[in-house]
Design goal:
Elements (H helix, E strand, L loop, with lengths): L1 E8 L4 H13 L3 E7 L4 E6 L6 H10 L3 E4 L3 H30 L17 H18 L1 H12 L5 H24 L11 H25 L1 H7 L5 E6 L2 E6 L8 E4 L8 E6 L2 E4 L1 H4 L5 E3 L4 E2 L4 E2 L4 E7 L5 H13 L4 H30 L4 H14 L3 H20 L2 E3 L2 H6 L5 E5 H5 E12 H8 L4 H11 L3 E2 L2 E2 L2 H14 L5 H12 L8 E6 L3 E6 L2 E6 L1 H6 L8 H9 L3 E7 L3 E11 L3 H10 L3 E5 L4 H11 L3 E3 L4 H12 L4 E5 L5 H6 L2 E5 L12 E3 L6 H35 L11 H24 L3
Parallel strand pairs: 15-24, 15-26, 24-25, 26-27, 27-28
Antiparallel strand pairs: 1-3, 1-4, 2-3, 5-6, 5-7, 7-13, 8-11, 8-13, 9-10, 9-12, 14-28, 16-23, 17-18, 19-20, 20-21, 21-22, 22-23
Helix pairs in contact: 1-11, 3-4, 3-7, 4-6, 4-7, 5-6, 6-7, 6-12, 7-27, 8-10, 10-13, 11-12, 11-13, 12-26, 12-27, 13-26, 13-27, 18-19, 26-27
Length: 766
């Protein structure tokens, strides 16, 4: 099985896209086809043993549309340019046609040679030529309408085609009668209707396409975010190359003010990088050796070297574009309803137009009046706005979400997110950082030193020394810094999570570990080593007891650390306990505020974790969660989610690895990304940063999207409900009538209303 994304030209409404989709899905060898009206593309899964891309493009052509191929953007741009010139020509034709046909009605001087009263044949022939030329300019509409009628997938173009041809053919008959001498037919020509209908439809499509392009700006801006060139190290020298010339493993240089060219890992230098376009976070992230960098992010002040890891289609930006486009290619439940309505709507309108015309003939009106009713109903009922109502809103919202660091994989999740009654959070790596860090130090050596201070001058000197070690992460006293340096130096050779917690904490405080001697790892207990001539024991209380180290005086401190969910390190120097160090998983900066925002929306927040109840309760209390489900194995999490789903729609938020099964089980699975790991297939939504407040933004975007779609559908139906009875002549007795030209204007206005309403989503604050 293979998958291809083809650009499609010629789609104008949901009946077009749904008709093409149905036609493609009927073809042997096509496993699944999803057509996107706004993005003008078709995502097609097919059996490569039966079909190739060329054959699929032939199917598209047979259905009445044109495939622009795969990623042939320049061809699409040429079409846009041609469309602009065609509109100018159409405008000139429309103005001339209206002047010749209606100048005498509003008191303007007639062109004598084309006067309907003094030269009716010239008048008729020139209008016929203008009308034929307009049909040539709008031939794509007529051709698509005919093909869709043949394939039994009638759409908006079918309605226009029937209306225009009816007008033209009846006018041709009128022309024949005028040439034969029946000049009264000069009042029954509809050539100007042919021109104006096609003219206004072209105006409407031009405006729609421009506005649809605006809804895609967020996606298109991602495609253009990476720089065109980069500097790489070749044979020990710096060389500027294009992105296509960069290979995996190349060493790339990024200077202050430049953009990162490809995804990679820093191998030299330190800097701060703005990754807002990926994570939605405005605060620059510190990058040093070992950290990942993302293509398109901006290097603020440092000079760095990084090794290229992901290039081209494998890059983070490419993955994001792919995910956002795929989200717009899925259909939300509300969109499926609109598509279903469109499928029945067009045939119903054709029948209704014919019936209305027949009724007026039966009750005694002439054929000209009946033809006028037929054409007007066909034109005014075109379901353009109905087709745009949902996809435009989905694309606009997907772009808005991606700008805020939220990637939505399918439109169903976008529609349903605001319906969530319960949000379930994993603890480790979701609410917390997922790594141990020093939370508290009991320094008994420091206490002894303070007890020995006799004079006020000495006490003041110690107090001043305690704030010397001041970092961006807080204040660490000089004595505590000494303890951390000792323990980090000893633990530096260990890979135990608790050991790494101390070492990483030391690095954060700019404390560099030093070499130790006689290092010995005692499995299950801790480490024994010598540092600066002193003997140290670093480990658990069992290690202290085994070596007869007195710890009774520290039991209360040990109990307090345990109560607060800490893992504990005992530190002994020369057979004397000098410190207790508590380490625990730290809570992410925005977790508490994110949970509070959800609770204000009357959403129940649940913590689901495999950790013990005591630790889970401590974290839950800190962030304000009242319901905790602890001691749950990864495979059992899905069962807990199933149980919660009985109470309402469940959104599950996890790290996308151990929580994969429960993410799939939940109604909406949200994976917390790290900025580069976005290939989380088990989730419906990916947060590109660790900021859980984006869950609230997701819900707000979802709510506004659904509200916008409902507004769009209202306006689409409102126009049709109001205009169709008028077009049918129901209110003719009251003097309220409509002609085909007014019908085309009304139809265009309905589409513009829906488009502009959808564009509000790109500007609304969330």
């Amino acid at each position: 099985m293979k998958k291809v994304l083809l650009k499609i030209d010629g789609m104008t409404c949901s009946a077009c896209s749904s008709g093409l989709e149905k036609y493609l899905n009927k073809q042997d060898g096509i496993l699944n086809a999803s057509v996107n009206l706004v993005m003008n593309n078709a995502s097609i899964e097919y059996d490569e043993n039966k079909l190739d891309v060329g054959q699929i493009e032939k199917f598209v052509a047979k259905a009445g549309f044109e495939s622009l191929g795969i990623d042939k953007l320049e061809k699409e741009e040429k079409k846009k340019s041609r469309g602009k010139y065609k509109l100018w020509i159409f405008t000139a034709i429309a103005i001339l046609t209206l002047y010749i046909a209606m100048a005498h009605m509003i008191g303007l001087p007639e062109i004598p040679v084309f006067s309907m009263h003094t030269n009716p044949i010239n008048y008729t022939v020139i209008l016929a030529l203008f009308s034929a030329f307009a049909m040539y300019l709008g031939r794509d509409i007529l051709k698509n309408g005919y093909k869709n009628l043949i394939h039994k997938t009638a759409n908006m173009d079918t309605l226009v085609m029937l209306g225009v041809l009816s007008s033209f053919l009846y006018s041709v008959y009128g022309t024949y009668m005028i040439i034969r001498g029946s000049h009264e037919y000069v009042e029954r020509l509809y050539y100007e209707s042919v021109v104006i209908i096609l003219f206004f439809i072209n105006i409407g499509r031009y405006v729609e396409n421009r506005n649809k392009d605006k809804t895609k700006e967020a996606i298109q801006s991602l495609m253009l975010i990476t720089p065109n060139k980069a500097t790489v190290i070749k044979d020990g020298k710096e060389k500027q190359v294009t992105l296509d010339e960069i290979s995996k493993g190349d060493i790339v240089v990024c200077k202050p003010g430049e953009k990162i060219a490809v995804d990679g890992e820093v191998i030299e230098g330190v800097t701060h990088i703005n990754e807002a376009f990926i994570t939605g976070e405005s605060i620059p992230a510190k990058k040093e050796v070992g950290n990942k960098v993302i293509a398109g992010s901006i290097n603020y002040e440092g000079w760095i070297k990084y090794k290229a890891e992901k290039i081209g289609r494998d890059s983070t930006v490419s993955e994001i574009v792919k995910m956002v486009v795929e989200a717009t290619n899925t259909k939300a439940p509300i969109a499926k309803i609109a598509d279903k309505i469109s499928g029945y709507f067009v045939p119903a309108i054709i029948i209704l137009a014919i019936l209305a015309a027949c009724v007026w003939l039966i009750i005694g009106r002439d054929i000209a009046f009946s033809i006028n009713v037929l054409i007007t109903v066909l034109v005014v009922a075109c379901p353009c706005s109905l087709g745009l109502a949902t996809p435009l809103a989905i694309v606009a919202s997907s772009g808005l979400a991606s700008k805020n660091g939220i990637l939505i994989k399918n439109s169903e999740s976008l529609e349903n997110a605001h319906k969530a009654k319960i949000v379930v959070f994993d603890k480790t790596g979701t609410i917390t950082q997922g790594k141990l860090s020093v939370s508290k130090i009991y320094n008994y050596l420091e206490d002894e030193n303070k007890a020995k201070i006799d004079t006020e001058a000495e006490r003041k000197q110690v107090e001043e020394a305690e704030v010397e070690q001041n970092t961006e992460n807080g204040v660490l006293s000089v004595e505590n810094a000494k303890i951390i340096k000792i323990v980090a130096s000893i633990e530096n050779k260990s890979e135990h999570p608790i050991a790494r917690g101390v070492v990483n904490y030391a690095k954060e405080k700019n404390i560099e570990p030093e070499n130790v001697e006689e290092f010995k790892n005692i499995a299950g207990y801790g480490i024994k080593a010598k540092y600066n001539g002193n003997s140290y024991l670093v480990g658990n209380n069992k290690l202290m007891n085994q070596n007869n180290i007195a710890i009774d005086f520290a039991l209360e401190d040990e109990k307090e650390l345990e109560t607060n969910g800490n893992s504990i390190i005992f530190v002994a120097e020369n057979e004397k306990l000098i410190a207790l160090i508590g380490l625990k998983d730290t809570i992410k900066e925005n977790s508490k505020e994110a949970i509070k925002k959800l609770q204000t929306k009357n959403i129940e927040v649940v913590m689901l974790t495999g950790d013990n109840e005591r630790t889970a309760d401590v974290i839950a209390h800190e962030v304000g969660i009242h319901k905790v489900i602890a001691n749950v194995l990864p495979k059992e999490k899905a069962n807990q989610v199933k149980h919660l789903k009985e109470q309402g729609m469940v959104m599950m938020c996890g790290d996308g690895i151990n929580d994969s099964v429960s993410l799939v089980t939940a109604d909406i699975g949200v994976a917390v990304g790290s900025g580069t790991d976005i290939a989380m297939d088990s989730s419906d939504v990916v947060l590109m940063s660790d900021n859980l407040e984006k869950i609230d933004k997701l819900i707000n975007i979802s709510k506004r999207t659904v509200r916008n779609i409902k507004q769009n559908l209202f306006w689409a139906f409102f126009y049709n409900v109001c205009m169709i009875p008028i077009a049918m002549g129901v209110f003719h007795f009251a003097g309220i009538t409509m002609n085909p030209m007014l019908a085309s204007i009304a139809m265009t206005l309905s589409s513009i209303t829906v488009t502009l309403n959808s564009l509000r989503l790109t500007r609304d604050a969330i």
